[in-house]
Amino acid sequence: MERTFTASVWREGPWVVAQCLEVDVASQGRTEEEALQNLKEALELYFEEPQPTATPVIRQLKVQVGAA
After folding, report:
1. Cα(55)–Cα(60) distance, integer angstroms
2. Which whole number is the average pLDDT over 19-40?
3. How far apart are CA 23 and CA 8, in angstroms?
4. Angle 38-42-48 from CA coordinates, rounded to 5°
5. What is the 3-state secondary structure (H, E, C) of 7-44?
6. Residue spans per domain, the chain
C-alpha cells in the first residue's frame, strides 16, 4: 500500500532536517533531497512489520500512582 505524507524541511547548521507532519519521524541529510530520501527510508522502516528475533517475556507490575 502506498500513502502520501507531508514533510517540514529546514536547515540546522550544515544539516537539512526533514520531519513528517503526520507521524513522529524525522531524518536529516546534507541536502534537501538527501534529507527527504532519508525520511522516506525512515518512514518505510517505521511502518515495517516487526520481526521478533526472540520470544519476549510478558510480565505485569503494580505501580503506585497519584497522591501517597
Report:
1. 16
2. 98
3. 12
4. 145
5. EEEEEECCEEEEEECCCCCEEEECCHHHHHHHHHHHHH
6. 7-46
